[in-house]
Amino acid sequence: MAADRLPAARFAVACEHALVAEAVRAALDERALDAAVLAWPDPAGTAPPPAHERGEFQAGLLLTSLDRWSRLRQVEALLASVPTRWVVLTDVPRGPEWGVVAEGGAVAVLPSNAALDQVAVTLVAAARGELGLEAAERDELAAQWADLKARRADLGARVGTLTPRERQVLDMLYAGDSVTHIAHLLEVSPATVRSQVKAVLRKLGVSSQLAAVAALSYFIEGEDLGAPARS
Q1: How would you write the pLDDT of the chain (231 residues) with one tens digit per residue?
Q2: Which of 43, 126, 154, 173 has CA atoms 20 to 30 A from the CA of 214?
Q3: Which domains does the chain have, with CATH numbers?
Q4: What is the pTM of this model?
Q5: Residues paired with residue 224 on neighbouring β-strands, in sequence order
């Protein structure tokens, strides 16, 4: 394959699952592609790979779901610490989350079930500078990502206005408890709980308990991404 035309090329491989990353590295090695596995940042996304693992890479392969806020922070930290032409494999469809990798140097995004031969060819093309996102597409994805972060920040501010008891009630709704059961557990009347639920809905800017629970799910760290329901 085209790898023999890049004798000095070195590729980075990054995945939150170390065994997957190592398996991919070995498979690339079998295709005469010199690859090194990068350490994955910590859950808070504050620790980039160790300095000795950073180096000159002509291209990188990132395998990630892009489906959780904590993971997105890790991806941001990783791409910031290892600037190169990244090829991304993900099962998340094109949307705001792609803005993270677009801003971080991604030149191609492939589905997570892409064949390894296709991945290898894409990596070589990336290393040769033959791939790249159009400026308009990169700007669009970055704008969508900025909007998603702003909406989550707004929701976080709204959640922050809840009183300790209101947050407790919301957490119990999130856990699947009914108003009657919450009243029993908190040793208050159902009317009191309903009043607290109304306050929660008003502060979160939603109109139903289901929407309030969806909003909390959207905000809680580590939950799957998705726009909070508004009705």
Answers
A1: 444 455 578 999 999 999 999 999 999 999 999 999 998 988 765 655 554 455 689 999 999 988 888 888 899 889 988 999 999 999 999 999 999 999 999 999 999 999 999 999 999 999 999 999 899 999 999 999 998 888 888 888 898 899 999 999 999 999 999 999 999 999 999 999 999 999 999 999 999 999 898 888 777 654 444 444 433
A2: 43
A3: 2-140 (3.40.50.2300), 161-231 (1.10.10.10)
A4: 0.76
A5: 68
